[in-house]
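Subject: for your reference before the review

Hello V.,

The reviewers asked for a structural picture of the protein, and I figured it would be easier to keep everything in one thread rather than splitting it across files. Below is the amino acid sequence we used in the manuscript, unchanged from the supplementary table.
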Amino acid sequence: MQEQAGFVEKLLDNPIGLLILSNVVFFTVYILWGLVKIETIAPIPTALKEIILGGK
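And here is what came back from the structure prediction:
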């Protein structure tokens, strides 16, 4: 008897499946990368914030 191909094997043999999988992977990586970049931005110093917003 011949074994049936698994889900992953069927997905990797399908060009449209590969296209969708690659886009999902890239989308996820870029979103995570963007969130890390946003989280690592240094806060604005208080003096500069007061100058920009028209301080006291």
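For the response letter, the relevant points are probably these. The mean pLDDT is 88. The helical segments are 7-13, 15-39, 46-53.

Happy to draft the paragraph if you're swamped.

O.
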